[in-house]
Write a structure and sequence with these properties.
The structure is a homodimer. Chain A is built from two helices and five strands, in the order αβββαββ. Chain A is globular. At the A-B interface, helix 2 and strand 4 of A face helix 2 and strand 4 of B. Strand 4 of chain A pairs antiparallel with strand 4 of chain B.
Chain lengths: 110, 110
């Protein structure tokens, strides 16, 4: 998706500092943090939101969930909130699937 | 887990009305709703939280994520928030992995 900011970030076009990267996901800090720690786990594949998932995406979704405790451990966090917004009404701001991981002084969201 | 309320619910010991059930998950309404719609997707397997996942749980996690848009569709919802709390500090109240799906007039959480 040429005009998708998260595709550009995932493709390395934005010089984003990745906290983690593999074949299917990238992880980086949210630029508008709503907690002391606020990172995003983002699929490299352009999927607009959870309602756009196909059956073939099950393994990718499992991997994205598994990334959450792995990143928390890496960052020394043992309690955190995961949020996935689907649709603008829920607070989704970028139409490319991403999991928020937040910890410490959480502020209202969406 | 004998003393786990979500294990009892998943085992059918609590006469809970399931919105959905299959071999690995059950879905039911949160008894203290924090939005117009507030349902829980709960694994039948007792996993205390995301930080207790094993590699073998990847498919289950993928399935739980896939359940979210499927349930939203079933309920006629096209915008929703998914929350997974990990650890008491984040607002986790039951030590058995569950995904919250919320939609409509979301109230503060945790």
């Amino acid at each position: 998706m040429d005009d998708c900011i998260f595709c550009k970030i995932a493709n390395g076009e934005m010089d984003t500092q990745f906290l983690y990267e593999d074949e299917t996901v990238v992880v980086f800090n949210d630029i508008q943090p709503k907690a002391d720690t606020h990172i995003l786990v983002v699929s490299k594949k352009h999927i607009p939101s959870l309602i756009h998932l196909n059956d073939e995406d099950t393994t990718l979704m499992g991997h994205m969930v598994q990334m959450l405790p792995k990143m928390a451990s890496k960052l020394g966090i043992n309690s955190f909130r995961t949020i996935v917004n689907t649709g603008a009404e829920s607070g989704q701001e970028v139409d490319h699937l991403h999991f928020h991981l937040l910890s410490g002084n959480l502020r209202p969201f969406g």
